[in-house]
Predict the structure.
Amino acid sequence: MAITNVALIGGTGTLGKPVLSALKASEFNIFVLNRQTSKSVYPKTRVITIPDDLNVDEVAKALRENNIDALIITIAGSHVESQKKLIDAALKAGVKRVMPAEFGSCDSADERTNEILPLMKGKKVVRDYLLSLEDKEREDGMGKLTWTSLVTGHFFDYGLTCGLLKFDVKGRKAYILDGGNIKFSGSNLDFIGKAVVKILEKPDDTANKLLYVHSHYVTQLEVLGALEKATGNKFERADQNSKEELDVTRPKMLAGDGEAREEVVAVWGVVASDWKKKDGFANEMLGLEEEDLDEVVGRVVAEL
């Protein structure tokens, strides 16, 4: 299977920007899907305008006219129906590969994770939908639609700036879960962009697979050490019990509290995101290497 023309939707988001940047630096021909009323601007990038309601026939026509081989979806993973429409359009247009909006801190293939975080169930629904289309024959010798879901762990460099990793860098505070020695996987945004490119460069090896990658495999105490080294300051440490934290925040999340949802993601993304134990751990297969913790933390601190 050869992939030449790649389209991305969601190219101005937290993840979409670095993925688009990595794609533009690759050998692929890159296009961006942009809804009709969107104010997003993409300099020096070919833009395909699509209807706001993602009408399947019209999106399929646009994909077909531009000979799109792969569609990368970086809109919010909670937008299940929008993703299904895009997948239906890709199926109709003869697109060879779809990467849904999986990514993210937690593993939607894990039963316990879906119990803790109903948010993840939407990602599983989309992946199950892609699975149901795997054997669907298409007309005109189009071949079958394939997919790759990529799970990245916490967005590491971004997460240090917004409390996702349980550190308040500006306030010099560390919220340490269960003693701080749990190994967890996290990925820098640029690294995720590279991983997407590597997947497209190995279309046969990555077809119809759920893959896990990380640029860091660390404990909170290791991150704390790197932060104290980079800032030259001692952080105030607050020890927390993950079960107690979840017992307090989950009911609020289930009642619709967005901040509580982010806190549940933050906690669970530390205590239940060890990708090295996963069958689909793909760093080696994709030729991706872990990145230097001190270097990345130093860069983030300098930017803050």
